[in-house]
Amino acid sequence: MNNVTLPLWTDEVPHIKGTAPGIDIPQLTIYRPSQSLKRDVAVVICPGGGYGGLALDHEGHDIAKWLNQLGITAGILEYRMSRGGYQHPIPLLDAQRAVRLMRSKHDEFGISPGKIGILGFSAGGHLASTSGTHYDTGIEDSSDPIDCFSCRPDFMILCYPVITLLKQSAHQGSRKNLLGEDADPELVQALSNETQVTSDTPPTFLFHTSEDTLVPPENSILFYQALQQAGVSAELHIYQKGPHGVGLAPHIEGARNWPQDCAAWFRSQGIL
After folding, report:
1. What are the CB-based long-range contacts (under 8 Å, 24+) for 25-29?
2. What separation in angstroms does the CA of 233 have from each of 113, 135, 259?
C-alpha cells in the first residue's frame, strides 16, 4: 500500500512561524503493512537529531518498514524544532497531536485505539518519553474533534534515548536546542523525564549501547529504575558494541538483536 503524508493540523497550525512542510508544518508519514500481516497496532516514530534535525532514513523510514514486517502501522513524525525556530513546548505539542491523530483514525487504519505506541531515538527518545510522562486524556472543550482524543501512548520504545537534562550524562546539544541557553531550572527538572514517572506511565522497552559516548547509557538506566520503582512494566537491554545512532544496527554484533528482542517484548506484553 502506498505511503501517505498527513499534516497534523488541516487548519491553522498552532504557533506557526513559516510555511515549510516538515519544518513549520509538522506531518506524519503513514506506512501501512500488507493485509496478510496486518495487526491492530500502530506506532508513532520520532527520529533523533538533537532537536535540530531529523535522521529520517535510519531512524525513520527503515524503522517504519521493520514495524510493517511485524504487521504494525507506523507513522513517521516530522516535528518542529530549533532549525525552524521552535523550542519547548512545540515538539511535545506535535508529538501529542500525532498520537491523537493516529487514535482518531483507528477505524480508517484498522487499529485498536488502545494499542497506539510511540518510539523514539536519541532526542526523539526524549520526545517520546516526554509524551509518555506529560499527557492528557483529551481536551474536552476543544472545537477540534482530534483534540478530544487522548494523547497518552499505550507503550513506549526508547532507543538510546536522551532522558535526563540534569546530570553530566545529559546531552547538552539537545537541551540547548529544546530549551535555549538559560533554561528555567524548574522546566529542566520537569523535562528530565526520569523524575516524571508515575504508576500510569506506559510500559516501556529500552535499549542502549555501552560504547555510546554521546548519550551515555545512564539515561536509559535512570528511566528504567524510575519505571521499576513506580511498578511499571519495563525491559532494558544494554548491548556492549555500537556507537550512538545505530538505528537497526544490522552489522553490529549484539545490538543488531534489538529489533527481535523488541518484537519478543511486544508479544510478552500482549501488544502482538
Report:
1. 26/77, 26/78, 26/79, 26/80, 26/94, 26/97, 26/98, 27/77, 27/78, 28/75, 28/76, 28/77, 28/78, 28/98, 28/101, 28/102, 29/3, 29/4, 29/5, 29/64, 29/75, 29/76, 29/78
2. 20, 19, 18
Q: In the prediction, which pLDDT does 155 show?
A: 98
Domain boundaries, the chain: 4-192
What pLDDT is attached to residue 179? 96
Q: Please check the confidence at residue 1 and state whether its pLDDT lies above 90.
A: no
The residues, any chain, with a CB within 8 Å of residue 71's CB and separated by 6 or more, are: 33, 37, 38, 39, 41, 272
pTM reported for the whole predicted model: 0.97
**CATH code at 4-192:** 3.40.50.1820
